[in-house]
Write a structure and sequence with these properties.
heterodimer; A: about 210 residues; mainly alpha; Ribosomal Protein L9, domain 1; Methane Monooxygenase Hydroxylase, Chain G, domain 1; 2 domains; 3-stranded antiparallel sheet; B: about 180 residues; elongated; GINS_bundle-like_dom_sf (chain A)
């Protein structure tokens, strides 16, 4: 088919990254694009402006150095690459906060902690592209994120023992984790449904 | 399970033992004697796609009081014998499903549909859950350095039936892509 088999029923991790890169994030710009009020507002200076279709270009045309602004993640990464901004890490990406999540995960064995849906992708992207902007040392943060991931993987393994043909509740599981599970869970649950469906006719007759 | 599904076609080609309820002229080639008749109570192994239809459609409904018998009667295959069922109940993970039948699940579901077999469904449910845990364990334990060389398959991997192989391949690919993405940068 026109779509390769791997992508027919799921996303690749790169596509998940693409989705996450559309989210807003805070940055410290290192340059100013706001045109001065004193001059002609008609913008005759010939300065190039941002004209975007998929993201809001208003904050980008009003950048003031060292004043936080929210822009789309992919723009932030582009600017960061050129050294034109530093990215403000989200609040949960701190050692203390991550430790709190880990404690919660360990205490509540039956549920997942309330990490944002994109935590794994954001953490990976920031570790590799904006490591110098994080408040805590990257290697420690990496360790904590890995801890969280492994604890959650263990819980997922426990949860898979209760697969059934009708439903599955996965509160607070992140998109990337769901995406990794998808082929397996769908395969098993579809087969279970098929197995149960083979006698469904009789039940209807009984009623 | 669709019309063009290759695995479904292959599963349907599996032979099941059947007993004929009628004398039928000309059908001797099913037994191997071309040009002869087939006798009542003859035991023949028929592919499921044929047996399934012949076990439903019957002779003249006008004859006899208790309704017409179908052309053939399907007999329980080895694949679903009590011996196999007990083996599943005792330990699905150690069972060599592939050597019992490489399309075990597909055929068992078809059988359960034909006979409304509640017990079989329960056993299948249990077997599927237990074995899928093991498949998930194998699929998610990946070492990227070893991927290039042919990995040595554990004994469990050789016991998978066709559905389980597909499940394993898909979840393995998913875990592999995920790991590659995390390592890449």
């Amino acid at each position: 088919m026109s779509l390769p088999w791997k992508l027919q029923e799921t996303f690749s991790p790169e596509e998940i990254q693409f989705i996450v890169e559309n989210e807003p994030i805070k940055i410290f710009p290192r340059f100013t694009t706001r045109s001065k009020v004193r001059g002609n507002r008609g913008n005759k200076t010939g300065q190039t402006r941002w004209k975007l279709l998929t993201a809001s270009d208003e904050p980008l045309n009003n950048l003031v150095a060292i004043q936080t602004t929210e822009v789309a993640f992919w723009i932030a990464l582009l600017l960061k690459q050129q050294g034109k901004c530093s990215i403000v890490a989200p609040g949960w990406l701190r050692l203390t906060q991550l430790q709190r999540f880990i404690d919660y995960e360990l205490k509540n064995t039956e549920r997942f902690s309330e990490l944002p849906w994109n935590w794994l992708v954001v953490a990976q992207l920031l570790f590799s592209k904006a490591a110098d902007d994080l408040q805590d040392p990257v290697h420690l943060l990496r360790g904590k994120v890995q801890d969280l991931r492994e604890i959650r993987l263990g819980k997922i393994g426990q949860g898979l023992k209760h697969l059934n043909e009708s439903h599955l509740q996965l509160d607070n599981l992140s998109l990337l984790e769901i995406n990794e599970l998808r082929p397996f869970v769908l395969g098993v649950m579809n087969k279970l449904k098929q197995v149960h469906g083979s006698i469904a006719d009789e039940q209807e007759e009984e009623q | 399970m669709s019309y063009y599904d290759i695995d479904d076609i292959l599963a349907d080609a599996n032979k099941f033992p059947c007993r004929f309820n009628y004398d039928i002229p000309g059908l001797g080639y099913l037994e191997g004697n071309i040009g002869k008749d087939i006798k009542i109570n003859a035991k023949v192994e028929l592919p499921l796609w044929l047996a399934r239809i012949l076990a439903i459609v019957g002779g003249d409904p006008g004859i006899g009081d208790e309704g017409a018998l179908p052309f053939v009667e399907l007999m329980a295959p080895d694949m679903l014998s009590p011996k196999v069922m007990n083996a599943i109940k005792s330990g699905p993970v150690t069972l060599d499903v592939h050597s019992i039948n490489s399309h075990f699940y597909a055929l068992a579901v078809k059988w359960a549909t034909l006979f409304n077999d509640r017990d079989l469904v329960q056993i299948l449910n249990y077997m599927l859950l237990e074995r899928s845990q093991e498949i998930n364990n194998f699929a998610s334990s990946i070492q990227l350095e070893k991927l290039g060389r042919g990995r040595d398959m554990g004994p469990f991997m050789l016991t998978l039936d066709e559905f389980e192989k597909k499940l394993y391949r898909e979840s393995h690919e998913s875990c592999k892509d995920m790991k590659k993405w995390i390592v890449q940068k």
